[in-house]
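Fold sample X.
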Amino acid sequence: MKPKFVSKFLALPLLVFAGLSVQAQDSVKTLPPITITATQKTVPEKVWNSFHSYFANAKDPKAYEINKEYLIKFMTDENVNHALFTKGGEFVYHLSFGHEKNMPEEVKDAVKSVYYNYNITRAIKVTDGRRLVWVVNLENAKHLVLARTENGEVEEVQRLKKS
């Protein structure tokens, strides 16, 4: 289960960050488009029951079948969320897309202690039941940075120089 989580966990934030980097470089390599086919489906009762037990305050959930699993997109307060469940209702992962104000103080402090002269432009909370990782987009006058933090440790994933 861990490799699946890691690959899905890294792919989405990198795609989000890559979208920001297009403006930051003079020579940009264009990658072929990625197409994910998903159809809105009637969801098995096990999946809905599991979803509601995890996310009782979810607003406007919409479910999609992807590779025999169910991705449910929903809102909580002002945050967009994605949660993936197996067809048996087992929780796989949850992504919550937010901003600096959505980060816990200790996570924000850990990031700001390393990137004190950067603004946090986006924060994505990633959980899989065992792990909690924050993926953070940061920006200052000269650079865009993608960092991740887990258990109080901050790691730089990518740095791009602005032009």
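Fold sample Y, listed below.
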Amino acid sequence: MTGTIVDQYLKGLEERLSEEDKALLSYTEGATGTQLEQLKARFPQCPATLIELLSRINGTYWQPYGDKEVCLLMLGSDVLEYPYYLKSVEQIVGPSLYDGSINQIYGDDLIEMSGLTGEGIDPDIDIGQWLCFSDCMNNGGTSQLYIDFNPAPGGVSGQVIRFLHDPDSFEVIARDFDEYLRKLIDNGYNFIHYDED
């Protein structure tokens, strides 16, 4: 295959979408240069591949494009029941859903929550320092995807973290954003589900 990983990802995604979802995808536009500069100012280590993806599609999470509003699940994780939306630049640089670190948020409950954090995740880093690029189908309350630039030993800067709610857990699912997209491609976009009529 030729082209970037983003080219490959979007081509494979479109091939698997329903006609209705393809129509939604056709309404999308890329983030402007000014918006992408805001993203890089907020997250200087933002991976080039995510910037490229946002330059093509500036979000699918109730995102307005002219007189249309796009709500399209176009990403996945290791939890197949929950496909994800791509956040826009404005949503990414906006306020974090969580205030504080994992240790601050969970406090004394940490003792009873074994398996809350996987290897390579620093529980003392403010979650607002992670780049949240995606919310799941349950409007963010159940699961989010993050890029972490401040890993603990055993992790790498730029790793992709999946937060899952109830029972809560934070798990590294890819070493970087490119690997994340490659896994979704190699797994055949298995997060895409349509009800059989």
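Sample Y note: The longest strand covers residues 131-136.
Also: Strands lie at 63-65, 68-70, 84-86, 131-136, 143-148, 159-164, 169-174.
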